[in-house]
Amino acid sequence: MENEKRLVLAIVLMLATVFVVNLLFPPGRPPETGIGEDTTAVRHETFAPAEESVPQAGAPTPAEEEARPLRQLVPPVEPEEEDTAWVTTPHLRLGFAQRGARLVSAEMLGFESLADETKGEPVQLVPPGTEDFFSHQWVVGDDTLDLRDVHFEMTPRRLDLIEGGPARTLTLTYRHAGSPFRVDLNYSFHPDSYTVHLEGRLSGVPATGWWLMGLGSGLQSNEWDPESDYKANLAFAAKGPDGVQSRKIRDVEPGERVALDGPFDWAAVRTKYFVTALALPLELETEARLSGLMITGTADPNQARGIVSFPMSRDGDFHYQVYIGPQDPGKLARAGRDLDQVLPFGYKWLQPILRPLAGAITALLVWSHNVLGLGYGWVLVLFGIGIRVVLFPLYQKSMRSQMAMMRVQPLMKETQEKYKNDPQRLQQEMMKIYREHKVNPLGGCLPMLLPFPILIALFFVFRDTIEFRGVPFLWLPDLSRPDPLYIIPLLMGASLFLMQWLGQRSMPQSNPQMKVMMWVMPVMLVVLFLKFAAGLNLYYATMNLASLPQQLYLNKERRKAAGKPPPDKKKN
Description:
This protein is of the alpha+beta class. The protein has helices spanning about 1-25, 60-65, 225-235, 330-335, 350-370, 375-405, 410-420, 425-435, 445-450, 450-465, 485-505, 510-530, 535-560; strands at about 85-90, 90-95, 105-110, 120-125, 135-140, 145, 155, 160, 170-175, 180-190, 195-205, 210-215, 235-240, 245-250, 255-265, 265-270, 275-280, 290-295, 305-310, 315-325. α5 packs across α6 (about 375-405) and α11 runs parallel beside α13.
């Protein structure tokens, strides 16, 4: 959020420069509603909802009230060494523990950790000691069946999927020795996907109430600066008909309980580049949406327990998708249910513009990288040059509009002096001058504003896009992190100063305010951009340097135009 504020300030300063250039020189005219907090109201100690919090639709029948308590379906388990079932695909290596069928390991085989302690190892998403990642509980009324400590049968104990091969299924089963009660959890894996299909079945007893599934206590950071990643990016998020709700784990106090009320299409926990989510499959009706997400703070500021709830169907089945992988917009979008919206894009009011623009820019950069076979650093250099070339006709139009404004300045000043005591008449005469001489007072500003949406979109592209994670360029260790030597930000500031200096030289008269701006603006922007991603600075510096030949050409054209006589005053 701090960098977002710095970006906003930088854009405001750049916009101010654009308008000052054009206005001071030459001078011109003086939240479908959720089903309520009851769906996630789970007791802190027992994980059982309070009596008044259970919807009537989920209340047990009289026959169920007479049945044995759910806790009797889970006999005490003596501590013993547990086994782990391992599933390996071309992208993932997952470990499911026998106790509780919980996820105890999730390695991203295609990504290396950048953190000092685990540098070079595969990214590991599950923090050490996590007990409730994909854990399961069944709640009926005030009774809770806690499956987190029971032993599940695992079939098979090992799954190895090869690229292009068939999907495989891991089955985790709990059977009660003294009754027909049984829980089956089937995880189906596809070798070419980060999405896993989860199918659960509760049999042997009437199905009702609510099922609770744990999302763990956060994800482990694998970045250069884990502490910064935890502080800025580690969060739970969920999306429903009213949009995305999120809560940073650092904002949840120890023992505090935060309820995000559904219904939700998905619920997730994420860091800067990776995410684990539980989502409703596209083929299912919206009635099966997740009911809510409860977040409970712990003593560790980097951890908070997340539990998702959803209603049990009468036949005892539930079907959901689990996504475990990178925050890649394309892969997330293919998972469905707008899961790609888990990527944060700053302020909500900007997201409708920034998301498609950032997506298009990312797709273009990745395509250029793949087709041209160049590193992303050189792709950014070409992109900055290309943007300046494409926008040159608009800049030329902007400059010509400025020159037209300069040529009618004598008429404008004379008109302002003549009608200074009659504002309405002054307005009419000024508009008359604009029409007769085909001058657009805003023509010099609008074309210069076009690069700013691209610059803002690139800020989020480099902040969140995993393609640039850990990508080096020349002396830069990572395009997604600030330049450790500050060379690129200084080059960006110097190029901006040179561009403004060349523009000032072509002006027929000096403007003290613009001279001050020429010195102050580059310095302020360098300070603001120091902590931005090196890739963003590289793009902006390249675009400024590519504009210097264009500025020299425009200066030559401006000097020619300055020799033309001003419009005939008698016409007005």
